[in-house]
Structures are given as structure tokens and as C-alpha cells.
Design brief:
The structure holds two protein chains of two kinds.
Chain A lengths: L1 H17 L1 H32 L7 E11 L2 E9 L1 H24 L6 H20 L3 H19 L6 H32 L4 H8 L6 E4 L2 E4 H16 L8 H4 L5 H10 L4 H8 L1 H4 L3 H24 L3 H21 L3 H28 L17 H15 L5 H15 L3 H29 L7 H6 L5 H25 L4 H5 L13 H5 L9 H19 L3 H8 L1 H8 L4 H32 L1 H18 L4 H22 L1
Chain B lengths: L5 H18 L4 H29 L8 E9 L4 E7 L1 H20 L8 H20 L3 H10 L1 H11 L4 H30 L4 H6 L4 H18 L8 H8 L2 H26 L1 H6 L1 H20 L4 H22 L2 H32 L10 H4 L1 H15 L5 H16 L1 H8 L1 H17 L6 H4 L6 H19 L2 H24 L27 H4 L4
Antiparallel strand pairs in B: 1-2
The chains are: A mainly alpha, B mainly alpha.
Chain lengths: 645, 530
């Protein structure tokens, strides 16, 4: 059953990719959808079995040896425990919905088989990532999803912007992988293995170990964890390595929903949760994670306030929500982070697919300034977007409320300066989240139509094949929080996770226990912030439409800075991209051609040629030249003979 | 099978084929066609024969196997000795596999002097196989130099417009190295009194002498590998060489350097290898970072791949001199992987070049649309070159980095930058060739891969994927040998007093107290309290 749940998408990708022309577009769609839907059903069965089956249900299936080099031994295996089971449901579930949705969304595209094959390939790679029982297999999935993401962002490969975005995504992720790879090596040096069980068993005993890194004697686990976190930063678009995520919106919208919202970008969160037994003994690393997560949540939200592209707004919102998950991990509340990961997968995929439905209706228009006044034409999509935004803003009953509240409570319950910093950043971000979500709703659906008449005449509700997945995801966005909260972060937490996540317990129990004892106002703070944000958005965009422009006019410099995404792209281009190209050219022309060749073979050839010219000049043919040289020679020899004696 | 001199058979079969081709007479077209088919059949038969080497080879035995020994100049202790061990066996097979592929790849690409070209190709194969199987230094030197001649001719006669400069540069560079190696061999012969390499491996040369011998060998092999900064012949040789020449050059000839470094420098001169370790690290890192950046600046696609070869071979030299299991294993694997990946990439470039006769990337664009099969094949090898897990490129790269990290974290750190730089230039290349609008009429007219091209790409794709998913099958063949090499190496270092009596294995972790960790409690244990 596990094998089917994981390898069916690969089979689908293989058939659709290599025999797409043979079986036709319809065939490819049927094969891939059937594969992933079956896998999704199996995942739910696995989830119920593992999640409620207690300790014994978790298992590892060994497939075969991968790399075997002395003490470095790695196998292909499938590790199925609660954490994996949660991810299986999220990945296969969202992927199945996106597959079905894509049948409708891509109906006008000429290469449907290729698209479906890429989607299924991505799903398989993601499954390999979450079922890994060692760091190296996780790295395989990690890089694999990177490639799938590269291919999908660049799906419309004739567009230059798509080419740029895909390369950027791959390279920025590679910078993260640079850290991840070094982290794996550090783990191997520390623990002598990269297999999870072996690592976890030793983690406590290595808590005070040090090792030599770059000539410094450093705390071993902190060093390894920070390196791994660099990898997570790349994949999960944390501040500093986030620049690829907004650009990745060049890909078709279903891709954004699956890869750049629900699954791949959460891989970093998953990795940290999986490595929780090690991170728990690296408190400094956790503090770094908290600070960066909190900053990401805040900064991304501010950028989200200013953008006009509907997909980019949601992309920055994703980045901001990932920041929440990271600071939850930073304060040690891994279950809360995974809980938010799960609820976020539902409502963010819903938002993206809803946005896709809007874009579909508006004849591929993505700029919200050219939308407005369409809610009556596409009422179903409108309702779906409302549900998604309510969940995102953290309104009670909806999924996001429970997970976001939990995260803010644990941050507060940490009772450290950094924890408080994260808490207030989170509250601020919650306010901004609500604001830009309703800004998006109002600008897109309300007010006067701003699109051309031709576009407006063509506005239509999407077909059922696109709406049905929205219904499923909307159900999740409403119910996932209230149903699952007891298992993920409530009373049944210990039984549910059954050891797949590890938390150090302090005097008052784990951080999750502590979160249940925060002051009464803390749980209401995010709600208040959210409602204020929503109210303010109505004031700004519905009741006083002149206000945004006036506001921007007052804070021109700040707005420009935020609108240009804090100038990260400009900075990186000036700091890394252009110098690398220049350096490459310089090393080639100066290093290779002028120095190495000039002093080496070409130089030697030139010297030889020069000498031969000189030598040939000696052969002038005049006897008196020769006689002169001879006399000089005799004199010199005789002189040396006498003087040396 | 025991009585058949299988190694000599594999070595000289291509030469027999070459003799047959020499005898072909008649009209030019017929001669060309017959020469091609004789070459193809000879190389295929040679490959099949070489498979028996693998069946006859016992991986668990770390010593030399299938040894053939014939007295040659007994008065001087010089003999005809052939044999293989785990280090050489895959290179023999790689040579015999790539030769038929090269014959097919040059089927239509080579138009003039077809007969002579095929002879050169077969002679090259003989020299390569001979080199990897030789166990007597005279024989080794003979074949090592012998490789130069057919390659020199291939570049000089069938090369591009700047072929004369390229072939001379190639010749001068490698010849300087070889002369130094000859001197070193003579010095070793005068000391040890034999040319038998099996004896040399165990012979304890004095520390002082090792330094000089090591330098001489190193220069010879550094030019071949090539290790930065002795690499500048390679881009020119590749750019001017015909596709088959590039394939053999990148695929097998560069591995002569790595093979030599293991066989001569590590096995015969352990103390000097230890002494020069940091020098090699610096040069390897130089290769990885410097040449990757230079590759980024290229507009000629063949030159870019040539520079990428230098960067990838940087991992090999780095891995060899980490002198630990992962590093050496990784270096071997990286060499094997590079054999197939770089060969395939040069073949890929040959496909485009045969159709449009230019190597400028800017002349192409948008080929993903009209040549989807070509795009898929190219993409697979691009990702293998980038070191994507699941392809052969990853295993070697990662293991060498791991070995380097264990030896010295700085080296590990710098070598890992190759992850980013390597991806940068390959993606740039792929993008310029395959993405963007298909608006150039001459590119639009290009045909997708034909069955001949598919026939030689298919086995390469299969090998690259199998090596990536199940590398253990390849590693098992050579790992016992490597373990013995390392053990011998450590033993000689220990007896020379260069390292402590107990070899420090991987972890340099120092343990202080392990008690503080006790408060830790898995989530499950909390359950009982609730």
C-alpha cells in the first residue's frame, strides 16, 4: 500500500511523459489523475492507520542499498510514521485536486501531456522527500522537487520572464542546497551516519560535543543545524533566500497552488520538524530560526500590502505564513508548525486555485487594477475566495484560526525576548494579512469594472472540473482546524505523534503545554488584529477609495522601498550575479589567456621563435663577422683562463 | 577461460581491425563504407570480449588479477606484464564501450579520409586499453605516449579551423609532462632494479626521493587530468577536435590522469602524497571555482563543456588526495560518471553542430519546440552534470565533498560552491539552446534525433540513471581494492611516523559530558502524564 501510494505518481509521470503522444492528451490526463487520486485515497487510509494506531503502526520499508562507501551507507527506504502520514495526505491530497483542476485550467494549452507528467513527477519527488529515512534520500527528493519546480515554472518556455524566473528559482535553491549538503556532511562527521534512527538515538549524548569547523572549535549540533537551516531557507523562501518565490508565479496557476503554496515550499518546515530530536539540543540554532521566521513573516506581509498582481499578493502571503511556521519551530513547537503547514496547504491551495479561476475568467489578466465588479458573474469562485481568506485571516471556525493562534500562543509562552519579538511580529503580520486579503477581495470582485468591455463580456464561471477541487479544498479550509486540533496540538497530541516529533520538556512540560496557560488576552490578540485589518481594508478600498493614494503620497519613499521588495533583487544582482559574470570573463581573458598561456605554452613558443630569430641573425654570411666573434671568444677564454688561476 | 589472454586480446583486437581497414582498396566511397563497417564490427566485438574481463574479475580480491606475464628483456628485468585490479577494470570497459559509440557518431559527421579516421580511432582504443592494463612501466609508458599520436592526428587533420594551433598546444603540454614522467620512471628503475609496477607499489623509496618523483609524476598527470592551472590546452583541443575526438578525450583520456594519480602517486609514493596534500587541495579548489566561473563567460558551447570538464575533474583530484574512503571512492565514481556524462554532452553538442555547423550558443534557441527528444536527452545529461541526486553525477560529487569535509572543512566548503556555480553555467547553456522563441529559420529547419543518434544515446542514458540509482553495483567492484590501497597507504605513513599509530577515523568530535541531555523526553513519554 505504501509503495503504491508513492510510486503510482511516478508511473503516471513516466507514461504521460514518454508515451504522451501515443495515448493522447485525454489518455495522459486520465492516467496521471487516476494515479494520484488512488495515491491520495491510499494516503488517507495510511493516515488513519498510523495516526491512530499508536507506536507500533510506524514502520520503515527498506528497498535497496543506494550508496555504500566504507562507513557511509545509505539505502532507499520508506519511513512511514505520523509526521510522514500527515505529509502524505497533504501532498497527495492537494496534488490530486490540482491534477483534476489542471484538466480544466490547461484545456487550451497545446502540451497537456507534458504538464500532467511534470505535475506527477513533482508529486513523486515530494513523496520521496517526506518518506525518506535518511538525510541523503531527503536530499534526493529535495533536489527532485527543485527540478520539477524548475520545469514547471518554465512550462511556457518561450517567455523570457519564465526562463529568468525558473533559472533564478533553481539557482537560489542551489544556494540553500549548498548549506543543506554541508549540513549533511557535518551530521555524518558528528554522528557517523545520516540515517535518522541512528542520529536521533545519539542526539542527546552529543549535546555538548564540539568539532572543528573552518578552524574554529564550534558547538557541533548548532553548526550542523544552522547549515541544515540554510537549506530550509532556500526551499521555504525565508528572508534572504526568498527572492525566487514571487518570480516563480510565472508558472501556470495550478503549479503555484501545488508547489509554491501547499507542498514544496513547506519542505523546509518538514525537514526541521523531522530533525526535531537534533534541533532540540541546538538552542542557539533555534533562536536564529525564530528571529528569521518572525522577520520573514513581517517583511513579506508588508510587501504583500503593496503588490498589484493577484498571484504575487498570495505568494507574499505564503512567504509570510511560512515565517509563522518557522518561528513556531524556533520556539520548539514543532507540532504547531506542522499543524499550520497542514491547514495552510488547504486554504492557500484554495486561494491560488480560486485566483486561477479568476484569471481564467478574466482572459489571463493578473493585475488587480484591471479587475473589479465581477462577483456577480463568478459567484462560486467569489465564495471560495471568501472562505480561503477567512481561513487565512484567522477567523474562528475556519482552519487558519486554530493553527495561527496556537503559533502565537507558543511564541508568547516561550517567555524570552526572542519569543516576544516573534509574538509581536506575528500579531503585526496577522493584521497586515487580514488587510491585504480583503484588499485583494475588494479590488478583484467589487467596485466598478476596470477591465475592457471585451474582457468583461467574456467573464464566465469556471467549469465543474475546476470547481469540484475548490469544493474539496474549501471543506478542508473550513474543517481541518477544528477537527484536527486535538490530535495535532491538543490533548491527544502525544498519542497522535507517537514519537515522530520530539520536544524537550521543561519544568512545566513541553512548550505546547505551556501555551495552554498564557494570559487570557493572548488568544484574542490575533483575532482582534485580523478584524481590525479587515475593517481597515473596507475603509480604504470600499468606503474611501481616495485614501490609498493619499496614504502612498504621504509615505512615498517608504512605499517605494517596500513596493520594490526591499530592493533585494537589485542588491543581489549588483553583489553576486554581475560580479560573477565579470569575474568569469576576467579570469578567462586575463587568467587563462594572458597569464597561463602567456607564460606557459604561448610564451615558450614566442621565446623560442625570438631566440631563433636572434640565432639566425648571427649567420650573416660575412666572414669578418665570424672572425670578429672568434677573436672575441678567444680573448674571453684566454682572459678567463688567466684570471681564474 | 583461464588460459585465454583476455587482456591482450582486448588490447590488440582493435589493432587487427585497423590492419584490415588499411588493406581496403577501391573506390573512395566503397572504401569509406567498408572502413566504417569494419571499424564498427571490430569495436563491437572488442566490447563483447571485454565483457569477459568483468565476468572473470573477482571483486572481493583486492590484488591484480587476470595477470599475463611474458619475459621480454630479462637481462634488464623488463617484462610484458598485464593485469587489472578494481581501479582499472571499469576504465577498460569504458574505453571499449565508447569506441563503438564514437564510430556510429562519426558515421556521417566525418566526410574526408574516413579510412584513416577509423584507423586512428581503433589505434586509440588499443593504446587506451593497453595503458589501463599495463603493469610494467616500460609498457605503461609506451601506451601512455601512444595515446598522444592518434589524438594529435585526429585534432590536426579532422579538426576545426584553428586545429593546428590546438593540436600543437595539446602535444607540447602533454609531452612536457611525459618527459618528466620518463625521467621519474628511469630513476625508480635504477633504484628498485625492475620495471614491474607490482614491485614498485611495495618498494619503499626514500622520503627525499619521493618528493622529486612525486612532482614529476604529478606534472605529467596534472596535465592529462587536467588540473588547474595546467588546463588551458583542453578547451582548445575540445573545440577543434571532431565529436568523436572530444568524446574519447573527455571520456577516457582525461581519466588516464586520475588513474595515474592513484596508481603512481598514491600507491607508490605515499609519503610525498601526504606532504603535498594541501597543494593538491588548493589546485583542485582552483579548478572547481575558477573554471566554473570561466565556463560561465563562454559563448561557445563546446568550450563551456570543456571548462566544465576541468571543474569536474577538480573533484576527482581533490577526492583522491583526501586519502579517506569516501573521498577516494567518490573520485573513482566521479571519473566513471564523468566518462559517460561528458561523452554524452559532447555527443549532444555534436548533434547540434552537425545540423547547423556552428558552436555559438546565440545561433540556436527554442529547440525544445521542434526537437523535443533532443531536449529531453540533453536535459538528462545536463542534470547529471549538475549533480542531481538520482543521476551518476551526484554520487561522485557528494562523496568527494564528504571526503574533503572530513579531511578539511575549508576544502569541503569551497568545493560545495560547485553546486551553485556548476548549475549556473549548465542552466545558462540549456536555456540559450532550448528555450525562448523559435524564430531563427535555420534552427526551425533542424530535424529531431534520428534512430542512429537515439541508438547511441539510449545506452548512455541508461548507464547514467543506473549509476545514480544503484551506484552500489559499480562501487562493489572497486571498493575492496580501494580499501586495501588505503590500508597500505596508512600503514606506510604510520611506519614513516607521519600519522599516529591509530588511524583517526571520520569523526573529530570531542566528547565532554553526555549527562546534561537527560531531561529530554520524546512526545510519547509525555502521554502517560496527561
Amino acid at each position: 500500500m505504501e509503495i503504491a501510494a508513492i510510486f503510482l505518481p511516478l508511473l503516471g509521470a513516466f507514461i504521460a511523459g514518454f508515451f504522451g503522444r501515443l495515448i493522447g492528451d485525454r489518455g495522459a490526463q486520465i492516467v496521471t489523475c487516476a494515479g494520484v487520486l488512488t495515491a491520495a485515497v491510499l494516503s488517507v487510509l495510511l493516515f488513519t492507520e498510523i495516526g491512530f494506531g499508536g507506536h507500533e503502526a510506524a514502520r520503515t520499508i527498506h528497498l535497496f542499498t543506494w550508496i555504500d562507501s566504507g562507513t557511509f551507507e545509505v539505502s532507499w527506504s520508506l519511513r512511514i510514521d505520523t509526521l510522514t502520514a500527515v505529509m502524505l495526505v497533504v501532498v497527495n491530497g492537494v496534488s490530486a485536486m490540482v491534477h483534476v483542476y489542471s484538466v480544466g485550467y490547461m484545456s487550451h494549452d497545446p502540451s497537456k501531456a507534458r504538464f500532467m507528467a511534470y505535475l506527477s513527477l513533482f508529486t513523486f519527488m515530494m513523496l520521496m522527500l517526506v518518506t525518506a529515512d535518511n538525510l541523503l534520500q531527503m536530499f534526493f527528493g529535495w533536489e527532485g522537487v527543485g527540478v520539477a519546480s524548475y520545469l514547471l515554472i518554465n512550462f511556457w518556455y518561450e517567455k523570457k520572464s519564465a526562463n529568468d524566473a525558473s533559472m533564478k528559482a533553481f539557482l537560489v535553491n542551489r544556494v540553500g542546497d549548498f548549506g543543506f549538503a554541508l549540513g549533511i556532511m557535518a551530521v555524518f562527521v558528528i554522528f557517523g551516519s545520516v540515517q535518522f534512527d541512528t542520529i536521533f538515538a545519539q542526539a542527546a549524548s552529543k549535546a555538548d560535543a564540539t568539532f572543528n569547523f573552518l578552524g574554529f572549535q564550534v558547538h557541533a549540533l548548532t553548526c550542523a543545524c544552522l547549515l541544515l537551516f540554510v537549506g530550509a531557507m532556500g526551499k521555504s523562501a525565508q528572508l534572504g533566500l526568498h527572492t525566487w518565490l514571487p518570480d516563480a508565479m510565472e508558472g501556470p496557476t495550478p503549479v503555484s497552488a501545488l508547489i509554491h503554496a501547499a507542498t514544496m515550499v513547506t519542505a523546509g518546515v518538514f525537514m526541521l520538524a523531522r530533525m526535531s530530536p537534533v534541533f532540540e539540543y541546538a538552542p542557539v540554532a533555534l533562536e536564529v530560526v525564530t528571529v528569521l521566521g518572525a522577520l520573514t513573516a513581517f517583511v513579506a506581509a508588508t510587501i504583500g500590502l503593496t503588490q498589484f498582481d493577484i498571484k504575487r499578493v498570495i505568494a507574499y502571503s505564503t512567504m509570510s505564513q511560512l515565517g509563522y511556521m518557522f518561528f513556531a519551530i524556533g520556539v520548539g513547537a514543532y507540532p504547531a508548525a506542522v499543524f499550520h503547514l497542514m491547514t495552510h496547504a488547504f486554504f492557500k491551495a484554495l486561494l491560488f486555485l480560486g485566483a486561477g479561476s479568476v484569471i481564467h475568467a478574466m482572459s489571463d489578466e493578473q493585475d488587480m487594477r484591471n479587475m473589479g465588479g465581477i462577483w456577480k458573474q463568478i459567484p462560486v469562485t467569489y465564495v471560495m475566495m471568501w472562505i480561503g481568506n477567512l481561513a487565512l485571516a484567522g477567523i474562528p471556525i475556519f482552519a487558519g484560526f486554530y493553527s495561527k493562534d496556537m503559533i502565537l500562543e507558543v511564541a508568547f509562552a516561550k517567555h524570552t525576548g526572542i519569543g516576544n519579538f516573534a509574538f509581536w511580529m506575528g500579531i503585526a503580520a496577522a493584521f497586515m494579512t487580514a488587510f491585504y486579503s480583503w484588499r485583494l477581495l475588494i479590488m478583484t470582485f467589487h467596485g466598478k469594472p476596470r477591465a475592457s468591455e471585451k474582457v468583461m463580456a467574456h467573464v464566465h464561471e469556471s467549469p465543474l472540473v475546476m470547481l469540484a477541487p475548490l469544493f474539496v479544498l474549501a471543506t478542508g479550509a473550513v474543517l481541518a482546524g477544528i477537527v484536527a486540533k486535538d490530535w495535532f496540538v491538543g490533548h491527544e497530541l502525544a498519542e497522535f505523534w507517537s514519537g515522530s516529533i520530539f520536544m524537550l520538556a521543561g519544568e512545566h512540560g513541553t512548550i505546547i503545554d505551556a501555551a495552554h496557560h498564557v494570559p487570557g488576552w493572548v488568544p484574542y490578540a490575533p483575532l482582534v488584529a485580523g478584524l481590525t485589518g479587515i475593517a481597515l481594508a473596507y475603509v480604504f478600498y470600499m468606503f474611501a477609495p481616495g485614501l490609498p493614494a493619499a496614504f502612498v503620497g504621504t509615505f512615498k519613499a517608504i512605499h517605494a522601498f517596500v513596493f520594490r521588495k526591499y530592493m533585494f533583487d537589485e542588491l543581489y544582482n549588483a553583489l553576486f550575479v554581475r560580479p560573477a559574470m565579470k569575474l568569469g570573463f576576467g579570469l578567462w581573458k586575463v587568467g587563462d589567456v594572458a597569464i597561463i598561456d602567456g607564460l606557459g605554452p604561448d610564451g615558450a613558443a614566442k621565446v623560442t621563435r625570438g631566440l631563433s630569430v636572434v640565432a639566425s641573425r648571427l649567420q650573416s654570411g660575412y666572414v669578418y663577422h665570424y672572425a670578429f666573434v672568434m677573436v672575441i671568444g678567444v680573448v674571453a677564454l684566454a682572459g678567463w683562463f688567466f684570471l681564474a688561476r | 577461460m583461464a588460459d585465454v589472454p583476455i587482456l591482450s586480446l582486448t588490447t590488440f583486437l582493435p589493432l587487427v581491425g585497423a590492419l584490415f581497414i588499411l588493406l581496403i582498396r577501391g573506390e573512395e566511397q566503397n572504401v569509406a563504407r567498408n572502413a566504417k563497417s569494419v571499424a564498427l564490427w571490430t569495436s563491437i566485438i572488442t566490447f563483447v570480449v571485454s565483457l569477459f574481463i568483468l565476468t572473470g574479475f573477482d571483486p572481493s580480491n583486492p590484488g591484480f588479477q587476470l595477470v599475463e606475464e611474458v619475459q621480454w628483456l630479462p637481462a634488464f628485468n623488463i617484462a610484458y606484464i598485464k593485469g587489472i585490479d578494481g581501479v582499472s577494470v571499469w576504465f577498460v570497459l569504458a574505453s571499449t564501450l565508447l569506441t563503438p559509440i564514437c564510430v556510429v557518431a562519426s558515421w556521417d559527421a566525418v566526410e574526408k579520409r574516413v579510412k584513416e579516421f577509423m584507423i586512428a580511432l581503433l589505434v586509440l582504443e588499443t593504446m587506451l586499453v593497453g595503458m589501463f592494463t599495463a603493469l610494467d612501466f616500460v609498457l605503461f609508458y609506451f601506451f601512455f605516449e601512444g595515446v598522444l599520436l592518434p589524438m594529435f592526428l585526429m585534432i590536426g587533420i579532422w579538426g576545426g579551423p584553428n586545429r593546428v594551433y590546438a593540436s600543437y598546444k595539446f602535444f607540447i603540454y602533454t609531452f612536457v609532462g611525459s618527459v618528466l614522467m620518463l625521467l621519474a620512471i628511469l630513476a625508480m628503475y635504477l633504484t628498485a632494479g625492475t620495471m614491474d609496477m607490482r614491485v614498485m607499489v611495495d618498494y619503499p623509496f626514500s622520503s627525499n626521493m619521493q618528493i622529486w618523483l612525486w612532482l614529476a609524476f604529478f606534472i605529467a598527470f596534472a596535465v592529462k587530468t587536467p588540473i588547474w592551472p595546467a588546463h588551458t590546452w583542453l578547451p582548445f583541443a575540445h573545440v577543434e577536435a571532431p565529436t568523436a575526438g572530444s568524446v574519447m578525450l573527455a571520456g577516457v583520456m582525461l581519466k588516464m590522469g586520475g588513474y595515474g594519480l592513484i596508481r603512481a602517486n598514491i600507491q607508490m609514493l605515499p609519503e610525498a602524497s601526504f606532504y603535498f596534500q594541501n597543494l593538491v587541495f588548493v589546485m583542485s579548489i582552483g579548478a572547481i571555482i575558477y573554471t566554473s566561473l570561466v565556463a560561465l563567460a563562454q559563448s561557445d558551447m563546446k568550450k563551456m563543456i570543456a571548462y566544465s570538464s576541468v571543474a569536474h575533474m577538480g573533484y576527482v583530484s581533490m577526492g583522491i588526495f583526501t586519502m579517506n574512503q569516501q573521498g577516494l571512492d567518490g573520485a573513482m565514481f566521479q571519473m566513471l560518471s564523468h566518462t559517460f556524462v561528458s561523452a554524452a554532452l559532447f555527443l549532444c553538442i555534436g548533434v547540434a553542430y552537425n545540423r547547423l555547423h556552428t558552436r555559438e550558443m546565440a545561433a540556436y534557441g527554442g529547440m525544445a519546440k521542434n526537437m523535443p527528444r533532443y531536449a529531453v536527452v540533453f536535459a538528462i545529461f545536463m542534470f547529471a552534470s549538475v549533480g542531481l541526486p538520482g543521476t551518476s553525477g551526484f554520487v561522485g560529487e557528494f562523496l568527494t565533498m564528504l571526503g574533503a569535509f572530513e579531511a578539511n572543512t575549508w576544502v569541503g566548503l569551497f568545493s560545495a560552491t560547485g553546486l551553485v556555480l556548476g548549475a549556473a553555467y549548465m542552466l545558462l547553456l540549456f536555456r540559450k539552446l532550448f528555450f525562448g522563441k523559435l524564430d531563427k529559420p535555420e534552427v526551425k529547419a533542424m530535424q529531431d534525433l534520428n534512430w542512429k543518434e537515439v541508438s547511441f544515446f539510449a545506452p548512455l542514458v541508461a548507464i547514467v540513471i543506473i549509476m545514480g540509482v544503484y551506484p552500489a553495483s559499480f562501487q562493489n567492484v572497486y571498493n575492496p581494492t580501494l580499501e586495501k590501497i588505503l590500508a597500505d597507504h596508512q600503514a606506510s605513513l604510520r611506519s614513516a611516523g607521519l600519522i599516529e599509530a591509530q588511524p583517526t577515523q571520520t569523526a573529530h568530535v570531542t566528547q565532554e559530558t553526555a549527562s546534561t541531555a537527560a531531561q529530554g523526553q520524546p512526545v510519547a513519554d509525555k502521554a502517560s502524564e496527561n
